[in-house]
Amino acid sequence: MERTLSIIKPDAVKNNYIGKIVARFEEEGLRIAGMRKVHLSKREAEGFYAVHAGRPFFGELTDFMSSGPCVVMILEGDNAILRNREIMGATNPAEAAEGTIRKLYAASIGENAVHGSDAPETAAVEISYFFRATEIN
Ligand code: CMP
Hints:
globular, 4-stranded antiparallel β-sheet, single chain, 137 residues
């Protein structure tokens, strides 16, 4: 059993895709072990994406992630990190496989509907960025 952090990004929230995206994770056998809607400040977005500080797209990324509310979730299941990444599809929606969330709901690499942790170590750090123990069940 594994846990991963998933974010429904401001573009997908604005486009009213929360329900479709959550339903997709549940249909794929992942369980929602934690969930909250948040509007990140620029500073909170910078903290979350600190690993990307210095990249040319960092300002654009953190502006976007603080531009409107997100839904942060913990997905739980066998192989949840990899499963989530398969369900999301490639970072760039133009390269995402048919049927993936980014292919279905995302417009560009910058506004790509969802985020998912990429490894067990980052999943642990990202989950603890948003959730305390009593909020995970
Ligand atoms: P995410 O999985 O949330 O992790 C980092 C994000 O940076 C990524 O999704 C993209 O939305 C964004 N990103 C990566 N590359 C670029 C880029 N070249 N231009 C703009 N945003 C990018």
